[in-house]
Amino acid sequence: MAALARRGYRIVERNYRCRWGEIDIIARDGETLVFVEVKAKRSGDFLPPTFAVTSRKQRTLVKVATDYLIRKKLFQTPCRFDVVSVIWPAGGEPKWEIIAGAFEADPDLV
């Protein structure tokens, strides 16, 4: 994803899947491992795409991220959760917004 690369992210993995669900992109931003959820909508929709990252979706992402960290033995790695919002205007270029640290992992939810 070019928008992330322009901001200095290095893509590690795409569409990581496990029994809990899927994470769209796993990337590095410096020393930080970033779990990225991408949400897109056409312009004219009432709510921005980020509203689709509900508390339920956040719980799923935390579980999948935990699975990834355990499988890769990345126990001491600093991590965060970002959301990329993409709005596609009719006949125009998409507008990207990267929300770094969009939500925190609640250990009680894992």
TrEMBL record:
Gene3D superfamilies: 3.40.1350.10. Transmembrane segments: none annotated. It comes from the Bacteria. One of its GO terms (molecular function) is nucleic acid binding. SUPFAM superfamilies: Restriction endonuclease-like. Pfam families: UPF0102 (PF02021). PANTHER family: UPF0102 PROTEIN YRAN. Belongs to the UPF0102 family. NCBIfam families: PRK12497.1-3, PRK12497.3-3, YraN family protein. This is UPF0102 protein HYY65_01830. The lineage of its organism: Bacteria, Pseudomonadati, Nitrospinota/Tectimicrobiota group, Candidatus Tectimicrobiota.
